[in-house]
From TrEMBL:
UniProt organism field: Penicillium nalgiovense
GO CC entries: periplasmic space
Domain of life: Eukaryota
Pfam family, one: PBP2_Ca3427_like
Protein name per the record: Ca3427-like PBP 2 domain-containing protein
Classification via InterPro entries: Ca3427-like_PBP2 (IPR054364)
Similarity section: Belongs to the bacterial solute-binding protein SsuA/TauA family.
Compartment list: Periplasm
Cytoplasm is among the record's keywords: no
Keyword Signal attached: yes
Keywords: Signal
Length: 373
């Protein structure tokens, strides 16, 4: 652990015996005799040794393709920090826990989960308005397409109308799959509490939960713990779409739902980035991510190939990859967040009962946004 020699709030993960002034203190201390440019290029400086950990939702790797392309770019080598990535199969809720535990620094995940984590009733009841992270940038501008699925053997469920007052499986409380259950209830005209939430964990346990089957105990009768769950369309498709190789997939699709907002955003830890709108490390990161998006859009044939190799953690047939590419729209500039977009998310989450209706939109936006556009 490397601490700033001026003993400010900045902490860097490296040897405990080394102390250097951090970037914030170099800017703030007018009496320093250090040359900033020389310090930044020094291999022993805190910033040069700093390692930034970016996390993402492991089950939705195709949305991280521009990130993977950015990390392959020669420009990444010139960044004043190293980047490592880590995946979270349980999704946004798990990443929020890790951000608050100072286990990760940056995360890319679902918009509704980030907003609910910062302005939702549970966080609003805390004495501090600091939720451990702030939303600092856009990633994907189009809505996310969620498949609504149940077990293939659930003959009593044939459509969305059969789900009223039933059990919905979610990865974690506060996750995107949890928030979307409220959105579904709102769109169907059901009461916000009409669905019983059942946290089941990542994608695999969710599939088992609605089928009621235990692959380790095939002799046991089906005992489902939820009637349905919602997950990103193309990740789920191999499990509900019958093929000649897999004529009896474990799930069946009974509907779909779209988020009524841009689907993916970038957040940063407030412990590491207390003033994100003035942080040069984030500026460098945004530039690298923007380049990754440009590389993505410049060679979609390469993207289709990558998505089919398993190299990025997913293996999609060309038809599915091409269909996904028709709809996905990555942002033109990752830095900053639009007030109106967050306000629209807050409005929906209030109706869904996730955010207290007594909280003003201004307060919610202040809790959520770290960098405004």
């Amino acid at each position: 652990m490397l601490l700033c020699s001026n003993f400010c709030a900045n902490v860097f993960p490296t040897q405990p015996q080394l102390y250097y002034p951090c970037l914030f203190c170099l800017f703030a201390a007018s009496t320093t005799q250090l040359d900033l440019a020389q310090w930044l290029t020094c291999p022993q400086s805190a910033l040069a040794m700093y390692q930034l950990t970016i996390s993402f939702h492991r089950a939705l790797e195709h949305y991280l393709t521009p990130l993977h392309l950015a990390l392959r770019s020669p420009a990444v080598a010139s960044l004043p920090f190293k980047i490592t990535t880590t995946s979270f199969p349980s999704g946004t809720g798990h990443m929020i826990t890790s951000l608050r535990g100072n286990e990760i620094d940056i995360a890319i995940g679902l918009t509704e989960g980030w907003v609910a984590g910062l302005a939702g009733k549970q966080q609003a009841s805390q004495s501090s308005a600091d939720g451990g992270y702030k939303v600092v940038g856009h990633w994907v501008d189009n809505p996310l397409r969620w498949a609504i699925v149940t077990g293939r053997n659930r003959d009593e469920i044939t459509g969305v109308s059969d789900l009223k007052d039933k059990r919905v499986g979610v990865s974690r409380l506060g996750s995107g799959s949890h928030i979307m259950s409220f959105v579904l209830a709102q769109q169907q005209g059901w009461k916000a509490d009409s669905l019983t939430t059942v946290p089941l964990g990542p994608f695999g346990p969710l599939r088992d939960g609605v089928s009621g089957l235990d692959s380790s105990k095939p002799e046991q009768a089906a005992n489902p713990s939820a009637e349905f769950f919602m997950w990103e369309e193309f990740t789920t498709k191999p499990y509900f779409h019958a093929t000649s190789e897999k004529p009896n997939p474990p799930l069946k699709k009974i509907g779909e739902i779209f988020t009524p907002w841009p689907s993916w955003m970038i957040v940063a830890s407030t412990a590491l980035f207390p003033n994100p709108d003035q942080d040069q490390r984030l500026e460098s990161l945004f530039q690298a991510l923007d380049q990754g998006i440009k590389d993505f859009e410049a060679d979609t044939a390469r993207v289709v190939k990558l998505l089919g190799t398993g190299e990025l953690g997913c293996n999609y047939i060309e038809e599915d990859a091409t269909e996904w590419l028709k709809d996905v729209r990555f942002t033109n500039a990752t830095r900053g967040v639009d007030d109106k977009i967050i306000g629209d998310v807050v409005d929906v989450l209030k109706v869904a009962g996730v955010i207290d209706s007594a909280m003003s939109n201004d307060e919610a936006i202040q809790r959520v946004i770290g960098i405004k556009r």
